[in-house]
Amino acid sequence: MEIRKMLENYSIEKACEGITEEELKKLEWATEKLQQAINSNHRIAASRANIEFHRLL
């Protein structure tokens, strides 16, 4: 898990090097959507929001 965590952090850093303000806003929106689904314990919505977040990355 530690190696996966390191690789994911590195991947995110590389993906965000050239990010635009519009792209950042979309990622923030996707993060909020994911957090709301997690907080409401809605697993299907959380899974879909997680996929959307990673698609945006």
Report the strand count: 0
Radius of gyration: 12 Å
Whole-number mean pLDDT: 91
What form results from the Cα inertia axes?
Answer: flat
Give start-end ranges of low-pLDDT stretches: none
One letter per element, helices H and strands E, the order comes to HHH
**Biggest sheet features:** none
Helix content: over 70%
How many individual helices? Answer: 3
End-to-end separation in angstroms reads 21 Å
Proportion of beta-strand residues = under 5%
**Which structural class do you get from the secondary structure elements?**
mainly alpha
Could you please describe the fold and organization of this structure?
The chain is mainly α. Helices cover 82% and strands 0% of the residues. The chain contains 3 helices and no strands. Helix 2 (21-39) packs antiparallel against helix 3. The model has no long low-confidence stretch (mean pLDDT 91).
Which helices and strands occur, and which strands form pairs?
Layout: H1 2-15, H2 21-39, H3 43-56
Helix pairs in contact: 2-3
Attribute tags:
57 residues, mainly alpha, 3 helices
